[in-house]
Specification:
75% helix, 12 helices, mainly alpha, globular, 280 residues, single chain
Length: 280
């Protein structure tokens, strides 16, 4: 059995993950850095911790599905009408999302053990977070160009390139949404369409990770009463994720220049502060 304060820390961690998962500031980096800096007594080496994090990710995927349910319904409806033909405009975007999800999925499976080894690296996560910030600021410079593509005419190679960019999220400190946003801007999408494609693309990969890892939660050695806290944490994380995507879609709709700069500056500042306070 663990103390009540430990349950509270896990709930705070769920809120942190829900807020940072979709913002381009790396939820995994924050899950490593914030508890260490605030001396939260959370054992990230425990057998139940990784499945716990994935429960939070599954909650995020659910929030994304609920927010974009009309888009997913339209995509599936178009797929049925087109009888699944990839060259048909009605089913093309769904196929593109599927193909673009493959790189991160395959790399995630191939590098699963190495990722676990990197999971506890405080210094690595802080430095990667700063590099992530630089990436976001450079992405704003790419956005200075006139957008040349919409989601309807996004080519297969460009979509696959965004899919490979998503793989950066396997590295603690790099943001999934940040990498795909910058890649989307790089291939000619505006902020809003790049964000929408990023969030649609994130849904299947996050959901797949949850489906693969959640069963391990029930086989992990777990202190008494923790399972209920974990599912409450998932609910809190999902609510925060929904609020985050609502905010971001409105934010990127209204901002046409330097929209990523505030997030980039934050990542650089927080990463540097973590290194200074952490004494590394």
């Amino acid at each position: 059995m663990i103390a009540l304060t430990h349950h509270i820390y896990l709930l705070f961690l769920a809120i942190l993950q829900g807020v940072t998962e979709l913002f381009p500031i790396s939820s995994l980096g924050h899950i490593i850095l914030v508890p260490a800096l605030l001396h939260w007594p959370i054992n990230r080496g425990a057998g139940w911790f990784l499945p716990f994090v994935v429960v939070l990710h599954l909650a995020t995927a659910t929030a994304l599905l609920l927010f974009f349910w009309r888009d997913w319904a339209a995509l599936l409806g178009g797929f049925i009408r087109a009888r699944g033909r990839p060259d048909n405009p009605d089913s093309r975007l769904l196929w593109i999302l599927f193909i673009a999800s493959i790189p991160a999925g395959l790399l995630g499976l191939a590098l699963a053990h190495k990722i676990k080894d990197l999971f506890g690296g405080f210094t690595f996560a802080a430095v990667a977070l700063m590099i992530n910030g630089v990436m976001l600021i450079l992405g704003d410079r790419l956005r200075a160009r006139q957008p040349s593509h919409s989601l309807d005419n996004l080519s297969w190679p460009r979509a696959i390139g965004i899919g490979f960019a998503q793989s950066l999220a396997l590295i603690p400190g790099f943001s999934r949404s940040g990498a795909t946003l910058v890649a989307g801007i790089g291939v000619g999408l505006d902020y809003e369409n790049s964000a929408k494609f990023s969030f649609l693309l994130a849904t299947p990969i996050i959901a797949a990770a949850g489906i693969l890892e959640v069963p391990k939660l029930f086989h992990a050695q777990m202190p008494s009463g923790l399972l209920g806290t974990i599912f409450l944490a998932g609910l809190l994380s999902g609510i925060c994720a929904w609020a985050s995507v609502w905010f971001l879609m409105h934010y990127f709709h209204k901002h046409e220049i330097k929209a990523l700069r505030p997030f980039g500056i934050y990542c650089i500042a927080f990463g540097a502060l973590a290194l200074i306070i952490g004494g590394y």
